[in-house]
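Researcher: We're teaching a course module on how sequence relates to structure. For the next exercise, students receive a sequence and then see the predicted structure as tokens, so they can try to spot secondary structure elements on their own. Here is the exercise chain.
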Amino acid sequence: MAARQLVVQDFGAGAFVARRGEPSRYWIGVERGLIKLAVYTPDGRGCTFSGVPAGGWCGEGSVIKREARRYDVIAIRDSRVALIPDTVFHTLLAESLPFSSFVVRQLNERMGQFIATVQNERLLSVDARVAQAIAQLFHAALYPRTGEVLELSQEEIGLLTGLSRQRVNQALRRLAAEGMVDLSYQSIRVTNLERLRHFGLSEL
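Model: And here is the predicted structure for the students to work with:
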């Protein structure tokens, strides 16, 4: 039943997958590409909560509470997105123990990620924020399909962190000089994930 009602849509870079304030009618999964969860003020200031790469899901909290979406969901690059209708989601949540267990784990892991993101934004240096933004994409429970090479441009990292491409470039060069990443055109190979995950946390 769920597979028959799943909707798959393509979104171009910069397109809204879901908008803040709209009813949360779908649970959102990324089949291909990269999306972000963010809020923006009328004068253009923004705050990004998380990036979601291929293999990740988002938005379960809003669907569970049947509330209006509290953030925009935006495609950072051309993306193919799977949309599970809220009616199907609630049926699976009520009738499938494996599904409900998966959703609970997702909520728990995402809460931890959001807390870390707020901490990083307020307390870490810019270089450390870039390191943490990259490391978060390797969260095995939330993003199981992330490989050691990220097809991620400096501009896209800037969209995830709220930093300019030039400042991201400086941070990446430092991380590369310290042996945590190798840089190529439009891609980053993580060579020491544990160091990357802990980079800058001594500042706290």
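Model: If you want an answer key for the exercise: DSSP finds eight helices and eleven strands in the chain. The chain has two domains: 2-117, 127-203.
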